[in-house]
Amino acid sequence: MFGNLIISISTHSRSFPVMVVGRIFYGLGSGTITVVQETILGSWFKGKGLALTIAIQITTSRIASFLSMGTAIPISDRFGFYGAAFWANFVVCAISFAINIVYMLAMRRIRRSTPESMVTRLRSKHRFNPRLVLFFFGIYWMFIVESFTLGGGWNSFLHINSELVKLRFDVSDGVAAWSASVSQIMPIFLVPFLGWFFDRYGMRTDMLVMSTTLFTISIVLLGFTMVTPIIGLVIFSVSLALGPLAEITAISLILPSSSLGTGLGIYKSAMNVGSTIVDIVVGVLQDRGSRLLEDSEHSYDYVMAFFVVWGVLSTIVATTIFFVDRHKWSSLLRSNIHDRNEAYHAVKEKINRPLLYVSSPNWREYVQTWSYMPLVILSALLVTSLVLFANKLA
């Protein structure tokens, strides 16, 4: 909320540095609240019902994004000032803040009425040990790679899709904005159904492969054909519905409850790092495109070619996850409601083994050499994204 307030104020002063400060605060808040929401849901609905509850959370978020993209220009036109849309966003954030206060008070009341023995048991169950990160499974780090690639691709494309439609298909700002908002509409209708589908039929890894494939197809249609952009945006929207739900619920199944918050936090961090790097790459590639007004439909050629390569890379990672789950994890992520308990019991010891390792005095003996590599790579990418961002501001 504070970040949105600063951004709204910057529209009056027309100060780019003030806007950047606001975006930094906004990013800190939005990333944190998403992780907290998913961690709470993952703790309450471990296993049965998890996909459906996270689906409702994602659907609510997509509805807000859809309405935001579709109403930004009409609100600006209505008040004759582009900053009006930012102030509308601030009002929504203020309402959300008030709802969070109500939730905190309700939870505090529930805490007072809960027996102390139960509270102690819950705390011990969810107590996190930082050493657990060194024992995260290889398949988890594959999801992190997928978050970096596919998640970064999704977010970056959502930043440019309105301008892409306007320039490639020669439409007005209003038509471009509403067309671009279509990329957010399918999750609104599909995700609740997918939540039920994942809970009952599984097939998370199958849907992840399909998500990456649809992402690539949508980019090809939007970037290299003159087929109406609605088709490509709807296909992209289906990809956006399938992927996040499959990834988040899969991570919730393979990690112990005590490390779920950290696992989802790293997942979100990788997505944000990917978005930052891809955004900058996209900006550089766009600068290399045609700058002639009469040739504006080709200004995104290099960008869309990059997204195609990015989509193929994401598909390779998703396919690898599919086979690892099948051969190393007893198809836990693919199992349906009838087979899930059997699949979970087959790997239950593997999932809980890190909890025994970290409590051992000789825990370092159980750490494998490769365990440090994902953390080093992620840290290097984080530093890279910060350096690239700082250079673009300079």
Order of secondary-structure elements: HHHHHHHHHHHHHH
| Helix-residue proportion | over 70%
Number of strands: 0
| CATH-level-4 superfamily name of the domain at 132-393 | MFS general substrate transporter like domains
CATH architecture of the domain at 132-393: Up-down Bundle
| Poorly predicted tracts of residues | none
Radius of gyration: 22 Å
**Termini gap:** 27 Å
Proportion of residues in β-strands: under 5%
Features:
394 residues, transmembrane helix, membrane, Growth Hormone, Chain: A, MFS, MFS_trans_sf, mainly alpha
Brief overview, please?
Helix content is 79%, strand content 0%. The protein contains 14 helices and no strands. The mean pLDDT is 82.
Tell me about this structure.
- α9 packs antiparallel against α12.
- The chain has a domain of 262 residues: Growth Hormone, Chain: A, CATH 1.20.1250.20.
- It has 14 helices and no strands.
- The chain is mostly helical.
- The model has no long low-confidence stretch (mean pLDDT 82).
- The two termini are 27 Å apart.
- It is globular.
- Helices cover 79% and strands 0% of the residues.
- The longest helix has 32 residues.
